[in-house]
Specification:
The complex is a heterodimer. Chain A is an alpha+beta fold. Among the domains of chain A are: 57 residues, Uridine Diphospho-n-acetylenolpyruvylglucosamine Reductase, domain 2 (2-Layer Sandwich), CATH 3.30.43; 100 residues, CO dehydrogenase flavoprotein, C-terminal domain (Enolase-like, domain 1, 2-Layer Sandwich), CATH 3.30.390.50. Chain A has a five-stranded antiparallel β-sheet. A four-stranded antiparallel β-sheet of chain A has the order 9-10-11-12, sandwiched between helices. The longest helix of chain A is centred in the C-terminal third of the chain and has 17 residues. The radius of gyration of chain A is 20 Å and the shape is globular. By secondary structure, chain B is an alpha+beta fold. Among the domains of chain B are: 253 residues, Aldehyde Oxidoreductase, domain 4; 152 residues, Aldehyde oxidase/xanthine dehydrogenase, molybdopterin binding domain (Aldehyde Oxidoreductase, domain 4), CATH 3.30.365. In chain B, the strands form seven sheets. Chain B has a seven-stranded mixed β-sheet with strand order 3-5-1-12-9-10-11, sandwiched between helices. In chain B, strand 27 and strand 28 form a beta hairpin. In chain B, helix 12 runs parallel beside helix 13 and helix 16 packs across helix 17. The two termini of chain B are 49 Å apart. The mean pLDDT of chain B is 97. The chains are: A alpha+beta, B alpha+beta. Chains A and B meet through helix 14 of A and helix 3 of B. The structure holds flavin-adenine dinucleotide and iron/sulfur cluster. The site of iron/sulfur cluster has 14 residues of chain A, from helix 9. The site of flavin-adenine dinucleotide has 30 residues of chain A, from strand 2, helix 2, helix 7, helix 8 and strand 8.
């Protein structure tokens, strides 16, 4: 990997400043921004070793006050999770287990326990795609190099997205946790050179469009500090179904995060977010609408699934994700309905 | 005794724990790239981004300017060094001998620097310009060339055939014809490939994980036009090879050259990504099976045709028809193997090279036939069991295939299976059960060993075999302990260094039979010296007896009537502190110069169908699959295998080998495939994130049954190889179980959920 400067600031301000201290190059794709944060490092070091990420200044945020950013609070309003909380810590939290099982599931089913011991919640949300053509720098890739072309479009694209794609990029968003977050209307609190703001997780990631190199709405040097998950009547009856070849340690081929507020059989509110099939964490609003007010059964679940993939666009190796994605939704809905809450 | 250390049955050795178990789990075992050296420099390979063309120019300027860079070896630097020789090397390609690119990720340079990081950074700055040509990387690609394997490759010598296949097939009342496909697979041993080289005057030392120390020594000496005696190869432990570390590779000479130019040790650890293209792989195959049978299941006509992918420059073939045409008592047999030459690097051995792909086709076809006939698949195999191989009518030294089926079927509870496809279910999960035959030819090769027994009972065994994790050190030690009457903990075993007497390549599952035969012989020579001394003494307790009546047990020589003399006393008679014997083992019928060849690193392995009797180990494997009725993910809750493989030296290490085989077999069925980009013939999934192998969660119950089998004819040690037996047939057993679960026949591996959602 190329040489870089390594900083370990102890305050948020210093961290933001340290990242911005890297010599600015206008229009650099965020992937190639000269200053980068590192938290658990499980994504960052991986991509640095592959020469995909080439920070000149690497700013380690693990020395930010743990009492604030490494803390989890669970109250009547919901959850407030520090960005530096490790995936494993959140996974083990008793309130998350009992009241927000969909969050617990997305964490438990991700990566391996060793990785989860390192990986932070903030870093998890911002992890980059696993597109093989993105990971190997000798391929043309619009995400790494705007305008270079997309090698995956007509390449081996079994893992690639079928929703939210563009002619310039079909890379799937790889993470699981963010699906739970958008299903539950979570927000992130951030801090940047221009001050702080609150962003819906659903608005955080950007579809590739003609600028696949821009992955989120975050400004360069903007830090995620907290993740807030509001309480709601649907959080307890929720789960995440992740389908993959292996039984563990694999990114989702398809996945569905489901949260239900039921009145007997009838759906008061359904929350559905999809993983493995879209370029960003994907909320299936059409599917939710198809269920609202209806009894949840095999039939309505299938209708919801149909609605979710109405606009899917497939390539040579990923067409199976349409029927599989539908089945995933059906199964997730029925299993969530059957949960004892 | 425990599950991991099964109680030995008759003709099975004690489940001694591995001699190096503690070292390995504590990190004390030293692998080739761990050997500490002072003043070490680090090399990183630069590889091509295209699969076919010419390197028009290559720009090292930025690389050379990187702080810490010492040297770059590239085109024009190999003068005076021979290209690799196909056979002892996996390819004849000398990648730096000229600027032609024959395959993706071909070596273009080695950048050497003070640190690994600097070398890696500099290697990435090397820019090549190519004159690119359109590559053909697949069977179907335009521009490939198809040639018969016979006459062009080392195998097959003949396409096995018997009787009149065409006639028999035509007149057969029941016919089956089907095509099968297996994918490219990559070995992925956990220990990465590496070479460390240093020169002391004109002597070259290579530390490299290899399955053939003397083979590598001979090949490197040839490339550098040196006396092999001036080359030393060291690999104390090897972290898995599976064939990939059998033949040598072009990398070694390049690293050795860099070390010579710098007069400094150079170490190159190849990245996982680069290993996918600088090392060989298992070739993809296409196969066609035709079977004619009677309504009661007797096969009257069997034909097996195979197409295997190879490179443009080398004709590598596995020709598994040599085994499959001898698997059952077919009436008539036809076979053929073709090579399809494409713009890929040369493939090579991968655990059970011929059997894994070819037995998949046969054992799938038999299952199809069983369904066609409405027969139990086990009974179909029984009807076609045979005591002679059908090609030349040779008897087997031993064959207990159906005994394996019976024991495995019972342990698996096969009789509870409802044969109707799709009929078994547990909640939302479809259940499928399938079975298949495992078979592996028993090979043996010349080997040498030196054994030293000290008066205090300490034993040292030396042989330049390779410990790949199979347990060869352990079983060689057990053989010596048994023969010299000492407890196992008194034995030390040294391997992994060409300073030791030569042993054959760790391949073809020959090592236990070959090395143990040499150790056995050396121990017998020691016994003889001790026995002679004891009987020749004037007044000792064994004086005047017949040496043939003596044995050695618990630190003493003993006679049948109980008279005994302790070892130190026998050594006193000899006036020696230790007795050391060197032995050469040449298998029956082996060439008289076999050991000379072994010293030169040349292979003379025999077995399988060769000789007066055919030599094979067998097994029967049963698999249960569960497939979700909605989302179709495939899980394997149970694998059961029963194996009959001659004498089992150590039930613990044997079980471990066979269990690993079953797991790999399942992996090959469901997970593994090296994906090649169709447009560019480049490898896509080049790491363990995207090349799937099972994780713990995928491996549930695995049961290994070791049958008692006594075979005095197969070789002096009575041992059949088991290293490659376990993963043969498993892929078919899985495919058969998947058919049983779903009614859908998958003739192409890997079997994945996308084949079932619609
Ligand atoms: C083998 C493997 C398997 C995996 N499998 C899964 C899986 O199945 N499911 C899944 O969801 N994930 C999986 N992962 C991904 C893993 O969960 C992520 O790598 C991890 O969550 C990232 O967190 P981190 O703290 O290590 O991030 P880092 O690597 O430190 O950072 C990741 C990115 O986030 C940025 N960043 C980090 N923290 C902040 C912050 N607070 N504010 C702003 N920017 C920040 C960094 O600059 C960087 O761009 C897998 C990873 C590996 C290596
Ligand atoms: S899909 Fe996106 S990330 Fe992948 S190669 Fe195309 S542009 Fe790059």
């Amino acid at each position: 990997m190329q040489r870089f400067a390594y900083r370990r600031p102890e305050s948020v301000e210093a961290a933001i400043q340290a990242v911005s201290a890297a010599p600015g190059r206008p229009n650099t794709p965020p992937v190639r921004a000269p200053g980068q944060f590192i938290a658990g490092g499980t994504n960052m070091t991986d991509y640095m070793a592959l020469d995909v990420m080439r920070p000149e200044i690497l700013v380690d945020i693990n020395r930010l006050p743990a009492a604030r950013y490494g803390r989890m609070e669970a109250g009547a309003q919901g959850l407030r999770l520090g960005a530096l909380v490790r995936m494993a810590q959140a996974e083990d939290h008793p309130v998350i287990k009992s009241q927000y099982p969909v969050i617990h599931d997305t964490l438990k089913l991700a990566a391996s326990r060793q990785i989860r011991n390192m990986a932070s919640l903030g870093g998890n949300v911002l992890q980059r795609t696993r597109c093989e053509y993105f990971r190997e720098t000798s391929w043309a890739c619009n995400k790494r190099q705007p305008g270079a072309g997309c090698s995956a479009l007509d390449g081996f694209n079994r893992q690639h997205a079928i929703l939210g794609t563009s002619p310039d990029c079909i890379a799937a968003y790889a993470g699981d946790f963010a699906q739970a977050l958008i299903a539950l209307d979570a927000t992130v609190e951030t801090m940047g050179a221009n001050g702080g703001r609150t962003i819906k997780v659903a608005d955080l990631h950007q579809q590739p469009g003609s600028t696949p190199n821009v992955e989120t709405v975050l400004e360069p040097g903007e830090l995620i500090l907290f993740i807030n998950v509001p309480a709601g009547p649907w959080t307890a009856r929720s789960r995440y179904l992740k389908i993959r070849d292996r039984d563990s340690y694999q990114f989702a081929l398809t996945a569905a995060a489901v949260a239900l507020d039921l009145d007997g059989d009838r759906v008061r509110e359904a929350r559905i977010a999809l993983g493995g099939v879209a370029t960003i964490p994907w909320r299936a609003h059409e599917a939710e609408a198809a269920l609202r007010g209806k009894p949840l059964d095999e039939n309505t679940a299938a209708q919801a699934a149909q609605a979710a993939f109405a606009n899917a666009s497939t390539r040579q190796h990923n067409a199976f994700k349409v029927p599989l994605g539908k089945q995933t939704i059906v199964r997730a809905l029925l299993e969530t309905k059957a949960m004892k809450v | 005794m425990s599950t991991a250390a099964p109680q030995p049955k008759a003709n099975q050795g004690q489940p001694e724990p591995r001699i190096d178990a503690r070292l390995k789990v504590t990190g004390g075992a030293r692998y080739a790239a761990d050997i500490p050296l002072s003043n070490l420099a680090y090399g990183v390979l630069v590889t091509s981004d295209i699969a076919r063309g010419q390197v028009r120019s290559i720009d090292f300027e930025a690389a050379k300017a990187t702080p810490g860079v010492l040297d770059i070896v590239s085109y024009g630097d190999m003068t005076g060094i021979e290209k690799p020789q196909f056979g002892s090397a996996y390819t004849s390609l000398g990648p730096l001998h000229d600027r032609t690119i024959w395959h993706d990720g071909q070596i273009m340079a080695l950048v050497v620097a003070d640190t690994f990081e600097a070398a890696q950074d500099a290697a990435r700055k090397v820019k090549a310009e190519y004159e690119e040509q359109h590559p053909s990387g697949h069977f179907g690609s335009a521009g490939t060339e198809t040639i018969p394997a016979k006459g062009h490759a080392q195998r097959p010598k003949e396409n096995p055939s018997a009787g009149d296949f065409d006639g028999a097939f035509q007149s057969a009342p029941v016919k089956l014809e089907a095509e099968y496909r297996t994918p490219t697979q990559t070995h992925n041993p956990i220990e990465l490939f590496s070479t460390t080289a240093y020169w002391t005057g004109k002597q070259l030392t290579i530390c490299e994980p290899t399955q053939s120390l003397y083979g590598l020594r001979g090949e490197i000496a040839r490339q550098f036009r040196m006396d092999p005696a001036d080359v030393r190869v060291i690999a104390p432990y090897v972290g898995g090879g599976f064939g990939s570390k059998g033949p040598s590779t072009p990398r070694t000479a390049i690293v050795a050259l860099a070390a010579r130019r710098l007069n400094r040790p150079v170490r190159c650890v190849v990245s996982r990504e680069q290993a996918y293209t600088t090392m060989p792989y298992r070739a993809p195959t296409r196969q066609r099976i035709r079977i004619g049978a009677t309504p009661d299941g007797k096969i009257t006509a069997f034909s097996h045709e195979g197409w295997e992918l190879t490179s443009r420059i080398d004709n590598y073939a596995v020709a598994g028809t040599e085994t499959t045409t001898r698997l059952y008592g077919y009436g008539s047999v036809a076979s053929d193997v073709q090579l399809v030459k494409a713009d890929r690097q040369t493939p090579a051995y991968m655990r059970s090279p011929p059997e894994v792909p070819y037995v998949f086709a046969v054992e799938s076809a038999l299952d199809e036939l069983a369904y066609k006939l409405g027969m139990d698949p086990v009974e179909l195999r029984r009807v076609n069991d045979t005591d002679r191989e059908p090609i030349h009518g040779k008897p087997f030294t031993s064959r207990h295939l159906m005994a394996c089926y019976d024991q495995a079927a019972q342990a698996f509870n096969w009789s509870a299976r409802n044969p109707k496809p799709g009929s078994m279910r547990h909640g939302d999960w479809l259940i499928g059960m399938g079975c298949a035959t495992a078979v592996y030819p028993t090979h043996i090769a010349p080997a040498t060993a030196r054994v030293r027994l000290r008066a205090d009972g300490d034993v040292l065994v030396q042989s330049a075999s390779q410990e790949l994790g199979t347990g060869i050190r352990t079983v060689a030690g057990q053989m010596a302990a048994e023969q010299l009457g000492v407890s196992f903990d008194k034995v030390k075993v040294e391997m992994g260094d060409t300073e030791l007497p030569p042993a054959p390549v760790s391949g073809g599952s020959n090592s236990t039979a070959s090395v143990c035969s040499a150790v056995l012989k050396a121990c017998q020579q020691i016994q003889e010296r001790l026995f002679r001394a004891a009987v020749a003494s004037n007044n000792g307790p064994l004086a005047g007896r017949n040496p043939a009546d003596l044995a050695i047990r618990n630190g003493a020589l003993v006679a049948k009537d109980g008279a005994a003399q302790k070892l130190p006393d026998v050594f006193a008679l000899l006036g020696a502190g230790a007795v050391e014997e060197y032995a050469e083992f040449i298998p029956d019928g082996g060439p008289h110069d076999a050991v000379q060849k072994l010293y030169q690193g040349k292979l003379t392995m025999t077995g399988g169908p060769e000789g007066k009797k055919a030599k094979y180990a067998y097994g029967a494997e049963f698999v249960e699959v569960r497939i979700n009725s909605r989302t179709r993910e495939i899980r394997i809750p149970r694998l059961v295998g029963a194996f009959a493989a001659g004498r089992i030296m150590n039930t613990r290490t044997a079980r471990s080998q066979l269990m690993g085989g079953l797991i790999w077999g399942m992996s090959a069925a469901l997970f593994e495939a090296t994906e090649i980009d169709e447009r560019t013939a480049r490898t896509i999934n080049r790491d363990l994130q995207d090349y799937f192998v099972p994780v713990n969660a995928d491996v549930q119950q695995v049961e290994v049954i070791l049958l008692t089998e006594v075979d005095h004819e197969v070789n002096p040690a009575g041992v059949k190889g088991i290293g490659e037996l376990g993963n043969v047939g498993t892929n078919a057993a899985v495919a058969n179980a998947v058919f049983h679960a779903t009614g859908k026949r998958l003739r192409q591996l890997p079997i994945r959920l996308e084949h079932f959602v619609a």
